[in-house]
Amino acid sequence: MTSLPPLTLAIAGAVLALWMALSLWALLTGLSLRRSSRQARGQADRLADLLQSAPAIPMLVRSDGRIEAPDRLANWLGRTTVPAFLSELVSEEGGLEPEHSRSLAAEVKAAQRGGRSFVLPIRARGSSRTLLVRGGPAGPDLASPGTIVLWIFDATESQSQIEELRKRVGDYREALEALSGVIEAAPMPVWHRGADQRLSLVNSAYVRSVDGESAQQVIEQGIELVEAVDGLSPSASAARAADANAPTARMVPVTIDGERRLMRVVDVPLGPVGVAGYAIDMQELEEARAELRHLVQANRDMLDRLSAGVVQFGSNHLLQFCNQPFLSIFGLSPEMATADTHFDRVLDAMRDAGLVPETADFPAWRKEKGEWFQSPNAREEHWRLRDGVHMRVYAQPLPDGGLLLIFEDRTEHVQLSSARDTLLRVRTATLDNLFEAIAVFAADGRLHLWNSRFRQIWAVQEVLLATHPRVDELMSALADRLARPQQSSLVHQLIRAATVERRQRGGRIAFADGRYFEFAAIPLPDGNALFVMLDISDSRRIEQALRDRNEALEDADRVKTAFVSNMSYELRTPLTSIAGFAEMMQSGYAGELTPQAREYVDAIIASTMRLARLIDNVLDLTQGAAGGLPIERKPVEVEPLVTGLAAAFEEKAQARGVTIALALRPNLGTIVGDERRIRQAVEHVVDNAVRFVQDGGRVLIHGEGTHKSVRIIVSDDGPGIESRLQARLFDSFARFGRNAAGETTGLGLPLVRQFVESHGGSVSLVSEPGQGTIVTIELPRGE
User: Fold this and answer.
1) Of the four listed, 559, 588, 653, 711, which is most buried by Cβ atoms within 10 Å?
2) Which of 223-237, 420-434, 723-737 has the highest mean pLDDT?
3) What is the DSSP string of 548-599?
C-alpha cells in the first residue's frame, strides 16, 4: 500500500474542512429561511383571517376581466360561487340588478382606462342588502397594470340610517311647516319679538285685531296690539319677561272692531332669539263660565224631570245634589237632601225606608259601598227589594273624588222581559206577512232568518233553507232563476260588504221570468246583514212609459223651436213691407198727410220697429236654445260701451224723472267677445230697471274689473221682486211683474242669460220686495 504525500493529505483536509463549513452554513441558512417562511405564512394566515372578518370584501379585476375575491362575496351577491370573470358578474345571470350591472361595468372600464377611482351603490337581484363599491387602480406591488381593486362594503345598515335621517328631516320640516300653519291659523293673536323687543313676526289674527293691511305693514310700523298700562309698554313687558327668564301674564283691555274686551296677554321668553307672545280673549271665557253655571243649573233641572233617581256626593262624602225622583223613590225628606248630609246617613235613611237589600251585617255592607268613592271604574249592581221590586244601581266615581249614583226601578223591565218569547213569535209572524222578501245573514255568511216571501220569490224549498246554507252556496243553487246567472255573485258581494265592511249597498236584478227586483244589503248592529228585496216590475214598466213620454216631449219641444224659428223668419217679410210702405208714406210719397194720418203712420212705424225687435229676440232665444247663437270674438272696450248705453236711456229716464248714475272704475279695460251681444245684454237689464222703477227713482250702473273678469252691476230702488218669482225670471217666454204702464219683463232677461253664458260668464239677481233689485253681469276677460 502506497502512502500519500503529506501535501496531498493537507490539501484534502482543507477541502474537507471547507466542505463541512459550507454545509454548516447552508444548514443554518435553511433553518433561518424556514423560520422566516413560517412567520410569513402565519402573518399571511392572520391577514387572511382579518380580511375574512373585515366589514369590507376586496376584489381584484385583472386587465383580462378575471376576478379574484373571497368566497364569502358569493353570499353577498346572492350566488353560490364567486364569478370568475367580470363579464359573468355583470351579465343577466350575474345576480345584480340590470341597471347596477351596467353601471358597475362602465365604472370598471373607465377606471381601467383612465385610472380614476369611483364609488357606486349596487344591489343583488331580489335582495334587500345594499352594497357600496369603492374602486380604483391597484398598486404596482399588488398586481399588474390595468388591474382594478374593488372594496365592497355592506351599506345596508348605513343606508337604512341615511333613509331614517332623511325621514326625520322630512318629519321635522313637516312639523315646522305644520307649526307655522298652526300659528298662522290660530284664532288668537300671536307674535314674536327679537332681541331688541321689536315685532318680527305676527299672525293673521294679530293683523286683523289691529286693523292692519298686512303682517309686513304691522311689523314695519310697529303697531302694538295693547296699549301701555300703568306706564308699562308692551315692549317693556316683554323685556321684563326676558330679564326674569320666566313667562309673564297680565290682564289688559284691548279695543277690537270698536269693542272693548279684556284679554290675557302672555310673554314667553325664548332665550337669545327673543320673546314670543299671545293674547287670549278672557271676555269669552267669562261668558263661558256664566254659561257653564247656567248649564249646570239646566242639567239639574233636567235631572229633576228624569224617572231615575240621581244623587251626587262630593269628595268629602257629603251630599251635593239629588233630584226629586230620588227623594220620591226612597221617601226621603227635603231636610235629608241638604249639603251637610253624609253618605252613611243617606244609606241609613234608605235602610229605614226598606229600600236596600237585606243583609246580616249592615255596617259592613255600608262600609263596602263607601269604597265606591275610590273605585277606578264604574260599578253596577242589581238590588232585589221587598214586594218584588228590582232596583238597578249605577255608581260612577267622579274625577274630583266624588260619586254619582243613579237608581233606576227595573221592576217593569223584568216584567216585560217575560213577554220576550211572545214578541219573538209576533216578529216571526210579521216578517212572514210582509210584502218585501227579507233574509238575515250571519257574520260568517250563513242564512240565519228568512220570511215566506223570500222563499216564494226564489221558489226554493224550506228544507234547503233550514240547512242555513252559506250565501255563495245558496246563490249558486239559485242562479238559474236569474236572467243573467252570473249576477248571482252580486248578492254574495253585497252580503260581504254589509257584514265585513259594514257598508250598505243595493242594486237591481232581473229574473228569467221577466220580473225585476230592487234589493239592498243593510248592516245590522249585531254584525249580521239584512237582505231586502222589493218587486219593482210595475215600476219598471211605468218608468219605461215615462221615458218614452219624455222622448216624445223632447221631440215636440224641438218641433216647437223649429216652428217658432221658421215663423219668425216668415214674419220678417210682411213686417219689412209694412215698415217700408209706412216710411214712404211718412216721407210724402203718397201725398201730404194730415196731422192725424201722420200720427197713425208714426204709430205704425213704432209698432213695426218694436215687433222687429221682438222677432229678433225670439230668433236669438231659439238659436240659443238650439246651441246655434253666433258669437264674435273681438276686443271690446267696456267703459265706452256702458257710457253709451247710459246716454241712450237718458232721455227716456228724464221723461219719468228717473236718475241714471254711473260708477265705473278705471280697471274695467277690455274683454274679448261679441260687442253687439254684450250691449244687448246690458241694455235689457238697464231697460228693465228704468221701466220698473217708480217716477223719480234712481238707477245705478256700477262697473269694476279684475285680471280675470269684468263685473257690471245694475241696481235700482224700484218695487223689487218676490222670492218665489226670482228663480223663473230668466226662463224663456216668462212674464213677471208689471210697471205703472202695464209693461212686463218681456224676453229681455232670458236673452241676457243666453248672451252672458255664451261668453262663459254668469248673471245673478238679488231682490227684496220694497227694497229694489240688483242684477250682476260677470264676463271673463277671454283670450
Assistant:
1) 653
2) 223-237
3) HHHHHHHHHHHHHHHHHHHHHHHHHHHHHHHHHHHHHHHHTTT-PPPHHHHH
Q: Where are the alpha helices (DSSP H) in 588-664?
A: 595-625, 638-648, 650-655
pLDDT digits (tens, 9 = 90+) for 491-518: 878 888 888 888 888 888 888 887 888 8
3-state helix, strand, coil in the chain (%, to 5): 50, 25, 30
C-alpha 264/C-alpha 208 separation (Å) is 18
- What's the grid cell of residue 145? 397594470
Is 344 a residue whose pLDDT tops 80?
Answer: yes
| SS3 call for 604 | helix
Cα–Cα distance measured from residue 764 to residue 779, given in angstroms and rounded to the nearest whole number: 12
pLDDT in tens, 8-66: 767 777 777 777 777 777 777 777 777 766 666 665 555 555 555 566 778 878 878 78
Amino acid residing at 644: G
Taking only the tens place, the pLDDT of each residue in 152-210 is 777 777 767 777 887 888 888 887 778 778 888 888 898 888 888 888 888 888 888 88
| SS3 label, residue 284 | helix
Distance CA 108, CA 615 (A): 86
- 3-state secondary structure string across 694-730: CCCCEEEEEEEECCCEEEEEEEECCCCCCHHHHCCCC
- Crossing angle for the helix pair 675-692 and 638-648, to the nearest 10 degrees: 40
Q: For the chain, what percent of residues have pLDDT higher than 70?
A: 81
- Between CA 352 and CA 711 the distance in angstroms is 83
According to the 3-state scheme, what is the secondary structure of 211-264?
CCCCHHHHHHHCCCCCCCECCECHHHHHHHHHHHCCCEEEEEEEEECCEEEEEE
Task: Please tell me the distance from the alpha carbon of residue 783 to that of residue 261, in angstroms, as a whole number.
Answer: 51
In this prediction, residues 287-302 reach a mean pLDDT of 79
Pairing of strands 659-664, 698-705: parallel
Map residue 747 onto helix, strand or coil.
coil
How distant is the alpha carbon of residue 667 from its chain centre?
37
Grid coordinates of 91: 351579465
Mean pLDDT confidence for 436-452: 83
Q: What is the pLDDT of residue 704?
A: 92
Cα–Cα distance list, 588 to 475, 581, 595, 749 (Å): 93, 11, 12, 39
If we measure between CA atoms, which residue out of 477, 476, 482, 529 comes closest to residue 508? Answer: 482
Would you list the DSSP string of 357-416?
---S-HHHHHHHHHGGGG-SS-EEEEEE-GGG-EEEEEEEE-TTS-EEEEEEE-HHHHHH
